[in-house]
Structure formats: C-alpha cells, structure tokens
Amino acid sequence: MDNFIDAINRVIRTRRSIFPASYTTEDIPKEVIEAIIANANYAPSHKLTQPWQFSVFRKEGLERLADEFGRLYKENAAPGSFLPSKLDAIRNKVLSSSCVIAIILKTHPEKLPEWEELASVACAVQNMWLTATALQVGAYWSTPGTISQLSEFLQLKPDEKCIGLFYMGFHQELPREAQRSPISEKTRWIEE
Which residue numbers delimit the Nitroreductase domain (predicted)? Predict the structure, then answer.
C-alpha cells in the first residue's frame, strides 16, 4: 500500500504545465493518447452524465487547427494591430505539439446546473494530466480568447461548448514539484 500512495503523491506533486515551446518533435503514439483519454472517462460525474467529449488533432489535423487559429487572429485583430510575428507564434504553438485535444463540455440543463458539469470535465482533464505526467508526456491546458468562436469549426451542437485546448508533446524537462504555499494556510479545522 505504501508504494501505491507514494506513486500517487509523486505524480500529483510533479504534475505541471509544460508548454509547446518545450516539446520535442517526437510523435506521441496513438495508443498513448488513447490511454490518456481513457483515464478521463473515470472522472466523477453527478447522475453519471459524463459530460466530457474530446476532439483530438494530430498530424494534418494540427495544420487545420493552426489555420483556424490564424484565421481567427486575422479576423479579430484590431485595425492596425495585426502582427505577422504574432500570427506565426499562434500557429507555431499548435504545430509544435504532437497533438492538441479540444476539451468539450456537453451540458444536460434538464438534469444538472452547468457548474457541476464543468467541475466533472475539469476532473476528467486532471485525470488526463496526471496520466500524461506518469507517461512523461508534457501537457498544458489553454483557454485562448477565441475559444468561444470554435463551435462551428469543431462542429459542436447547441448543448456543447469548448472549454479549452489540451496541448501535449514529449519533452526533456526534468521533473520538479510544483510550488505551493502550505496547505495549513488554506485549511480551517472545526472540531468543536
């Protein structure tokens, strides 16, 4: 049992954002991506709505996603503020990744408030992140300003919304524990 809790503690405490600039050019095998997504499916969800869905972009799909972000940047740039270097940076963030997963929330307003469904999807993403960490895959959850404009591109239904992008890639960064203030500063015990 000690080995089990030690392993869980190590994965949780070394999980961190690893950004596309740190990714190598090595492809993540499809089986590894499937294993990461499979663990998302074990997140808790009230009334078992399982409100998470994913669109996985890899290979040529990354080009399509990069093109869409480029189009959105050009379309939304204020007059006179368009920068070719920013366009390149937006596209390179996607193209530097082995895969990018669109995180989609499927709501069930007749059953639950949206915040409960959102909490479930966040738990699913944490499961993915912990699995990626254990498999030495770098990951980063991003919520770009244009996220609400991806519905048509992602072919979302009216009860679905994209709540983020999960960038992944192999990397060579050394593991390190996250910096956190002591939990004692965030905990109040009521025992009487």
Answer: 12-169
